[in-house]
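Dear colleagues,

As part of the handover before I leave the project, I'm documenting each prediction I ran so the next person doesn't have to rerun anything. This entry is a single chain, and its sequence is reproduced below.
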Amino acid sequence: FKFPPKMFSNTELIDFGAGTGHNTISLANWGAKCTLVELSDKSLSIAKEVFKLRAKNLNDHKFINSSIFDYEEKDKLYDIVHCRGVLSHTAAKERAFKKICKFVKNGGYLIYGDPNKAGGFQNMLQRYTLYKFSNSDEEIVKNSELLFKNDIDRSEKKGAGRTRNEIIFDRWVIQSQDDPSFSEVCKWLSDSGLKLYSSY
């Protein structure tokens, strides 16, 4: 993250697709009051444990078991809307993007990330190989370790506290992946009335 920690101080932040909370906890400890929205009840229970262990003030944060599409909170806007590595796994990435943008306060920020079509090519090739030679989630995990051990090792060393299984499930077991192009994202921003501040 290249953001200054003070950017998050005394802000209200919503994280769509918060997963196990390993990304969100840093933002919480930089001063954001976080609402974590996550479809997987297992991931959300891990996020609660992560926050119990590491959050400076647990009572400042909310945990909501919901999909992006089902989440409703009338008239509530946030200083920061955070959503990384999520929308390419939804059934309708553009609709999901428009939905999360509705929660950005005037003058607020959207922190969004997904692999783009070009950058995600290696991952998609790996997914194709695993799905071709695996008949179950358990076989995908086993074959991932056989075929892509070095790749998993690198991801594990990067930190964020994810286990090998979490890395494998995030990258390959998850059933749907439709990465957007940069031009698609720019159009979505424009259609939602948001301005691109920076990207990488």
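Residues 41-54 form the longest helix (14 residues). The chain is about 40% helix and 15% strand.

All the best with the project,
I.
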